[in-house]
Amino acid sequence: MFRVLRSNSNEAAEIVRDALVRGVFSENPLLVCATGLCPALAISTTLPRGFTLGAAMTVALACSNALISMLRAWIPASVRIPCHLVVIAAVVTVVDILLRSSLPGMSDSLGIYIPLIAVNCVVLERGNVFASRNTVFHSVVDGCVVGIGFCLPLCLIAGVREIVGSGSLAGIALLPAYPGIEIVVIAPGGFLALGFAIGIVNFVKAHRRHRA
Amino acid sequence: MNITELFELSLAAALANNIVLSRFLGICPTLGVAKKLPGATGMGLAVTLIMSVAAIITWSLNVLVLVPAGLTYFRLLVFVLVIAALVQAAEIAVLYFSPRLYRSLGVYLPMITTNCAILGLTLVNADANPVTGAPFTSVEAFVNGLASGAGFLLVLVLMAGIREKLETADVPKALAGTPITLISAGLMAMAFLAFAGMGASW
Questions:
Q1: Which residues in chain B have their CB less than 8 angstroms from residue A53's CB?
Q2: Residue in chain A lying closest to B179 (CA)
Q3: Which residues of B touch A118 (CB under 8 A)?
Q4: Radius of gyration of chain B from Cα atoms?
Q5: pTM exceeds 0.90, yes or no
Q6: Over its length of 202 residues, how does chain B's per-residue pLDDT go in tens digits?
Q7: Is the CB of residue B152 less than 8 Å from the CB of residue B25?
């Protein structure tokens, strides 16, 4: 019995590790697949905002993946997408209410971008492609790692934008005499930051391929 | 609601608070679909139509059903379902009236369901009108939808033109594809900042 338990936990660890590499590096939703960009561009103005949205996205992904995986035997193929939309909208509504009650200031600042997680391409794609065909454990792990893969570049871009744009990080002034470059913090900065981030990732990938 | 306020609202919705370049909604179709001019125009018009109709229906449901019954936590669910149903109806209508348009739009028509722009606009209509400070009336909601769709169409057409030019340009390899499109969008957003004084910010 102990051998069965140990082999199961080994297998579980391997699933988690493979999923982590896939979700964060090789199939990163933001930098490699370039899906679900809408909230990423709007939210990444300061580090706390970026992290809150990333965390909310991870929670919503894990829960919706779990639910869709649990219900996958009962959802007919012809109405799969609307059913998934309903499940995800319900999960995001709960996440939104929880966030509004626990962090009201941050929730006001994030505005409509938390409810918009419901139609985020990443959440729908993971539910449709992965969770509807795999076990609950696989789906929850996949949801968590894709969420982490979304949250990490978001925090990185948000941090860079906040430092370059206003000389502070998470509200703590790092460079006191810094006048601040406003354009990085508002609309165009998001496009430019994400464009250059994906460009850097492409450059690193091509460089590694060239070396290997 | 007078004509001046409606005009101010439509200018703000189309240009100053442009739904793509200012509110960052509807980026995925802008980057994915807007490669050729005719496709971009078709997509933009489809989104404008669906956005206007969705604005009316969701506003009615919100103001006449959800708010009086105190069920505002169902708002997201109801809005998503209404938009999905509308897109399905639009797909059937396009297939019936013009199969050629249906074939040229291809997979992009069902994809409008997951377009953040439409859901984002309906959620904005549920808040207060930035021009008057009061909640949106039905006409203001419709004008908001129509004008935001027009702004979306404008950006899509501009982006398609730029991408057609970019195909023959000498772009660094690391920036080819999505990055250069995003950088172009960033420069366009900078240009659209010139409209910032025209409307009340949201």
A1: none
A2: A195
A3: 76, 80, 119
A4: 17
A5: no
A6: 688 888 888 888 888 888 888 888 888 778 876 667 777 888 888 889 899 999 999 999 888 887 788 888 888 999 999 998 998 888 888 888 888 877 877 777 777 777 888 999 998 888 877 777 778 888 888 999 999 999 999 999 998 888 888 888 888 887 888 888 889 999 998 888 888 776 555 4
A7: no
Query: Is A195 at the interface with chain B, CB within 8 A?
Result: yes
* A182 touches B: beta carbon within 8 Å: no
Distance in angstroms (rounded) separating the CA atoms of residues A52 and A35: 19
Q: Quick one: which of B86, B44, B91 has its CA closest to B61?
A: B86
Amino acid letter for position A148: I
Q: What's residue A1's pLDDT?
A: 46
From CA B59, how far away is CA B138, in angstroms rounded? 7
Give me the mean pLDDT over the A46-69 stretch.
Answer: 92
The whole-angstrom separation of Cα B30 and Cα B40 is 8
Best B51, B71, B80 residue to mutate vs chain A (most A CBs within 10 Å)? B80
Any B CB within 8 A of A181 CB = no
For residues B198 and B158, give the distance between their C-alpha atoms in angstroms, rounded to a whole number: 21
Give me A174's structure tokens: 């790092």
The alpha-carbon gap from A111 to the nearest alpha carbon of chain B, in Å, equals: 9
Instruction: Quote the minimal CA–CA distance from A18 to chain B in Å.
Output: 27
SS (H, E, C) chain B: CCHHHHHHHHHHHHHHCCCCCCCCCCHHHHHHCCCCHHHHHHHHHHHHHHHHHHHHHHHHHHHHHHHHHCCHHHHHHHHHHHHHHHHHHHHHHHHHHCHHHHHHHCCHHHHHHHCHHHHHHHHHHCCECCCCCCECCHHHHHHHHHHHHHHHHHHHHHHHHHHHHHCCCCCCHHHCCHHHHHHHHHHHHHHHHHHHHHCCCC
ipTM of this complex prediction, to 2 decimal places:
0.83
CB-based contact B178 A34, cutoff 8 Å = yes
CB of A79 less than 8 A from some CB of B: no
Looking at the complex, does the CB of residue A202 fall below 8 Å from at least one CB of chain B? Answer: yes
